[in-house]
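Internal ticket - ligand job 399, magnesium ion:
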Amino acid sequence: MDKKTVRDLPDSQIRGKRALVRCDFNVPLEGARITDDSRIQASLPTIRYLIERGGRVVLLSHLGRPKGKPDAKYSLQPVAIRLEELLGKPVQFVETTDTDEAIKASHSLKDGEVLLLENTRFLGGEEQNDPRLSRALAELGDYYVNDAFGAAHRAHSSTAGVAAHLKPAVAGLLLEKELDYLGKALASPKRPFVAILGGAKISGKIDVIEQMLPKVDAMLVGGAMACTFFRAMGLETGKSLVEEDRVDMAKDILDRAGTKLILPHDAIVAPAMDQPERAHAVARAAIPAGEGVFDIGPKTAESYSRAIASAKTVIWNGPMGVAETPAFARGTEAIAKAMADATAKGAVTIVGGGDSAAAVADAGLSERMSHVSTGGGASLEFLEGKPLPGVEALEDRAA
Ligand code: ADP
Ligand code: MG
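stdout (structure tokens):
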């Protein structure tokens, strides 16, 4: 990691000073109930690190997609309550979107106290990376910590712009951990290095395929994405989700990939996604014209599991099928299980992608992976080799 982190700050920089910490508290809500608090949990190490050293912590985050103005259903109030429970200490919550008021509140903090401000996307200018807003946010702290990996691919005021006006600007422990896992896997993977790619659309993953193919020893493909490749191979794909405008591109990838790119040998098909009771397995050359592919088949699940078992580094992005439906979730579950077993045997296993992470959590296997990324979009852009604005904005370690 070539960026400074909170661990590079001397304790004298932390004690009595206001740390402006951008977290990713973008949690799923049902009403005011948080259905998955893993992003809050993942933010705890940095917050604890700072309060244990007498820091005064000012927390920022976005939640959902309000349109630059307050919207009660995206309030961070439920996060304040949950964070307070997890930290075991009071968390002040300031509901205001008046930055002057928020700045005043930040100055009244005492050593070791924590303040959470309201949703950054209630503020006009946040998503435009407005320099005026960035300058105002910079007055909320004496230094800046970015721990919001899940928002690091966005150049917004609270994730990037603010760092130009507030120094030191360093990474939090979660951001550091995410970049370490993903960065090491790409730069110096223990081999064999296996990537598993799935999900709905090849169009959303094309840059990942291009970027990773040269680096991996094998790329195992599943999800609807496989069907666009099937079409490119001239196979019947029936009612499967195929991106017609990507078939030529899929052909081109197949021509260049050689034996590294591995496609399913069989599939679970059904007349429609909402007829899981009619699901059955077929060879990939026998997909019925009146049915669609909704999961990888059992033979594929087995051979992919074997490939994972012999790998030393595994990166997975995208479910193997419509994992939301139990009848189409077996392929995805098999991958999760194989990765958990590989972790136990010493492999580095990384899960990136929101739906993949949810599938692993549903299978109760999150703890058995080396790393489950908290950032779907951000991890994808990192794997695509794109610079993350929220990381670029931080100070280099050598500087
Ligand atoms: P992630 O969030 O892990 O990056 P994606 O968002 O790319 O994953 O893909 C997840 C979506 O892909 C899910 O909604 C899943 O239902 C869908 N999907 C996977 N396989 C298929 C398939 N064969 N047909 C239709 N949809 C699929
Ligand atoms: Mg997704």
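Auto-summary: The mean pLDDT is 96. Residues 198-200, 204, 223-224, 241, 293-294, 317-319, 321-322, 324, 353-356, 376 surround adenosine-5'-diphosphate (ligand 1) (CB under 6 Å).
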